[in-house]
């Protein structure tokens, strides 16, 4: 923690991302990042009928207060009203830092709130140097930039989930206080432009599989899988290992899997214990999303494929031969 050297008035607000009534793992990482700043950490739970989520947030290690914005305007967590709420809260409650998890939700919301507050956000923070100084990757993760905020006002940040060890979801002590967000901040949402209308949400629910950002094991497939049906082969291996399934952009573009499974520069950044890349060439944009993985196993028919430069274990073989063999061996364990 930087509490020793940091100004005493640090006070941060973390936007809670939740799905099916539960906090996401990346929210726990954002809370851990906020705790590193020192000073009290408030968690903002927005939505409709989110009392249960608020109670869960109150039990997370490091949370000092939970603010609840229960409003029909936030039923679908749309960023337009949410950004108004956030900007208003940051101003009214004098938060020095406003953080969101660096996934689709946070990256959609936080820059809007920063713009409303007249502030420049820092996206994808991987390290907190001090209360004003942050490290973030640039050029698809090929370089790290250290940026320092010099203007007054709250610092708006998204925290890269894989860079901060998640805060414990259930702490030992008493839960934090839960209170309603100030009425003024809720009223600010009325100013949101009616520029977008919520139509429907579709896609995978994740089912029993872990979310990609938090998965310990990821089985990823590329263009070489050739079809949606073949991707199901990966799911069997993922199930055996309790892992998640991911894909390269080529596989997503070909329609084999939905794009929320894409890993890389324009997809998700992951850092599992084990990343198995099947029929993935290892383009720099893909590697940008996986290079923090502890152990990378690659199966590719081309011994010259760039993925082998990164892999801890490489197998030059047809994946359709390797996959069933791998599955058989693992099933024996
Ligand atoms: P390919 O490059 O076609 O590789 C397929 C591999 O499978 C080859 O190495 C081949 O030898 C091997 N193979 C073929 N048959 C078999 C078999 N039977 N068994 C085993 N191996 C086999 N890509 C991403 O993944 N994520 C991103 O976020 C991303 N963002 C991008 C952003 C930008 C701005 C740009 C320009 C590109 C981005 N890309 C991204 C695309 C990236 O450049 C590559 O095109 C893509 O990663 C290639 O996917 P692939 O490895 O599945 O396909």
UniProtKB/TrEMBL annotation:
It holds the Pfam family ETF_alpha. Its main location: mitochondrion. CDD domains: ETF_alpha. Binds 1 FAD per dimer. It is found in: Mitochondrion matrix. It comes from Raphidocelis subcapitata. It comes from the Eukaryota. GO terms for molecular function: electron transfer activity; flavin adenine dinucleotide binding. The lineage of its organism: Eukaryota, Viridiplantae, Chlorophyta, core chlorophytes, Chlorophyceae. GO terms for biological process: fatty acid beta-oxidation using acyl-CoA dehydrogenase. This is Electron transfer flavoprotein subunit alpha. The keyword Electron transport applies. The electron transfer flavoprotein serves as a specific electron acceptor for several dehydrogenases, including five acyl-CoA dehydrogenases, glutaryl-CoA and sarcosine dehydrogenase. It transfers the electrons to the main mitochondrial respiratory chain via ETF-ubiquinone oxidoreductase (ETF dehydrogenase). Gene3D superfamilies: HUPs, TPP-binding domain. Belongs to the ETF alpha-subunit/FixB family. GO terms for cellular component: mitochondrial matrix. FAD binds at residues 223, 248-249, 262-266, 279-286, 300. Heterodimer of an alpha and a beta subunit. Keywords: Electron transport, FAD, Flavoprotein, Mitochondrion, Transport. Its cofactor is FAD. Residues 12-193 form the Electron transfer flavoprotein alpha/beta-subunit N-terminal domain.
């Amino acid at each position: 923690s930087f509490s020793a050297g940091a100004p005493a008035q640090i006070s941060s607000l973390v936007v809670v991302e939740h799905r099916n009534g539960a906090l996401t793992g990346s929210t726990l990482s954002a809370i851990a990042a906020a705790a590193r700043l020192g000073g009290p950490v408030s968690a903002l739970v927005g939505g409709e009928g989110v009392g249960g989520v608020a109670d869960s947030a109150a039990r997370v290690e490091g949370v000092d207060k939970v603010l609840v914005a229960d409003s029909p305007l936030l039923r679908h967590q749309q960023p337009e009203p949410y950004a108004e709420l956030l900007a208003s809260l940051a101003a009214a409650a004098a938060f020095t830092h406003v953080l969101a998890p660096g996934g689709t939700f946070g990256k959609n919301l936080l820059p809007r709130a920063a713009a409303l507050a007249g502030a420049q956000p820092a996206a994808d923070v991987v390290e907190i140097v001090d209360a004003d100084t942050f490290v973030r990757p640039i050029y698809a993760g090929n370089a790290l930039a250290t940026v320092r905020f010099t203007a007054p006002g709250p610092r708006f940040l998204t925290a890269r989930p894989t860079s901060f060890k998640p805060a414990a979801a259930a702490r030992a002590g008493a839960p934090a206080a839960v209170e309603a967000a100030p009425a003024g901040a809720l009223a600010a949402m009325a100013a949101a432009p009616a520029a977008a209308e919520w139509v429907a949400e579709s896609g995978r629910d994740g089912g029993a599989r872990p979310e990609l950002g938090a998965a310990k094991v990821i089985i990823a497939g590329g263009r070489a899988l050739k079809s949606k049906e073949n991707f199901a082969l990966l799911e069997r291996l993922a199930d055996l290992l309790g892992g998640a399934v991911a894909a390269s952009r080529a596989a997503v573009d070909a329609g084999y899997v939905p794009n929320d499974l894409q890993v890389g520069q324009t997809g998700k950044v992951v850092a599992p214990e084990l990343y198995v890349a099947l029929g993935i060439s290892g383009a720099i944009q893909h590697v940008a999303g996986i290079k923090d993985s502890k152990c990378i196993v690659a199966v590719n028919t081309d011994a010259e494929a760039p993925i082998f430069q990164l892999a801890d274990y490489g197998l030059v073989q047809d994946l359709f031969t390797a996959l069933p063999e791998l599955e058989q061996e693992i099933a024996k364990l």
